[in-house]
Specification:
The chain is of the alpha+beta class. It is 44% helix and 13% strand. The structure holds zinc ion.
Length: 86
């Protein structure tokens, strides 16, 4: 599943930018809902570049766990909407 609106070059730049910050131990989870005990992203742990709910703006890095859960919520929402129109 690939969304055409994602600019992959921009994504790579974002990833490189935040990777440097996280490696220094200065990265914090940008997800509105953080599932971890603290927002600090420990260097070497899995993380993602997060988007706002529209998927058009990068909001910063996030723990892998928080990012995956946010994406699942979005998928569930879409499912509910499509079943309603049916
Ligand atoms: Zn988090």
């Amino acid at each position: 599943m690939t969304a055409a609106k994602y600019n992959t070059r921009e994504h790579k730049n974002q990833r490189r930018h935040w990777a440097r910050i996280i490696a220094k131990g200065e990265g914090y989870c940008a997800e509105p809902i953080c599932l971890m005990e603290e927002r600090w992203i420990e260097p070497g742990t899995p993380w993602h570049v997060c988007h706002d709910p529209t998927g058009t703006h990068y909001i910063g890095p996030g723990h892998q766990r928080c990012n995956v859960s946010e994406r699942n919520n979005r998928i569930n929402e879409r499912k509910t909407k499509s079943s309603r129109s049916w």
